Amino acid sequence: MKTETISIARALSKLGYCSRARAALIIKNGKVKVNGKPVRTPSYKVDTEHDIIEVDNRRLAKPATIVVMLNKPIGYVTTSSDELSRKTVYELIPVDLHLFAVGRLDIGTSGLLLFTNNGQLQDRITSPEKEVSKTYIATVSGKITDEHLDRLLKGVEITDGVVVTADECRVLAVEFSRTQVELKIHEGKNRQVRKMFESIGKNVVALHRSAIGRLELDLPEGGWRKVSEEELQLIFS
Ligand code: URA
Fold it and tell me: Which of 56, 106, 123, 146 is catalytic?
């Protein structure tokens, strides 16, 4: 059976023991064993499903998966520490759950952001190959015609030859000089939705993520809650 290996430093962080930087220190200090043998190299490859990993002679067990949804307000960055001291999304969820964000939303984007302590789940949701759809509501200046929608569906170049497509898109509302468009994509490239509209000559003035798969945001701005196992299935169905 093919198994995935990752560095022991990453494994310690994925298993929720500590950050990767701290893991490197602990490993170099000889506190970590893999299958009974001390390992002092942070890049040493392990398989977290099958290898026995110990810190200070205590086996690390896989913690139960926790998933949290947040309705991210604009003005918050999706990073744990920001060099510009801006507000971070981690200030909005309980710190003692030791969660990390699943993908990211720009500072100017609001809406559904998931957090988990399970690295494999994070990969399943964010990896473009897994094709989990993310639904955005973009408010753009000007009118959006069927031709614009067609271009988004057929594929637009966002940067240096990178072409991306919308899986679905439709106009939701037309308000004065703005149009609200619902757009589904399954990739998460940097500022992808904004760049997709830029490439058809349109400027996004507001962007909100309303769903991941069939899991829909149902919280007030800034609110968070745990996602149940049944709800988790909605992401992949
Ligand atoms: N696309 C963007 O442009 N920004 C986001 O935050 C998410 C998707």
Answer: 106
d(CA 55, CA 69): 31
Cα(170) to centroid(ligand 1), Å: 17
Active site residue 123: no
Q: Kindly calculate the radius of gyration of the chain based on its CA atoms and give it in whole angstroms.
A: 20
Ligand 1 pocket, residues with Cβ under 6 angstroms: 105-106, 109, 191-194, 207
- Residue 106's identity, in one-letter code, is D
Which of ligand 1's atoms lies nearest the C-alpha of 204? 3
User: Domain coordinates of the chain in residue numbers?
Assistant: 6-59, 67-128+215-233, 133-212
The answer to which of 5-19, 186-200, 212-226 has the lowest mean pLDDT is: 5-19
CATH code 3.10.290.10 for 6-59:
yes
Ligand 1 center to 79 CA (angstroms): 15
Q: Check for a shared fold between 6-59 and 67-128+215-233.
A: no
Two structure tokens written together for 231: 């709800």
Residue 226 Cα to ligand 1 middle (Å): 23
3-state helix, strand, coil in the chain (%, to 5): 25, 35, 40
pTM over 0.90: no
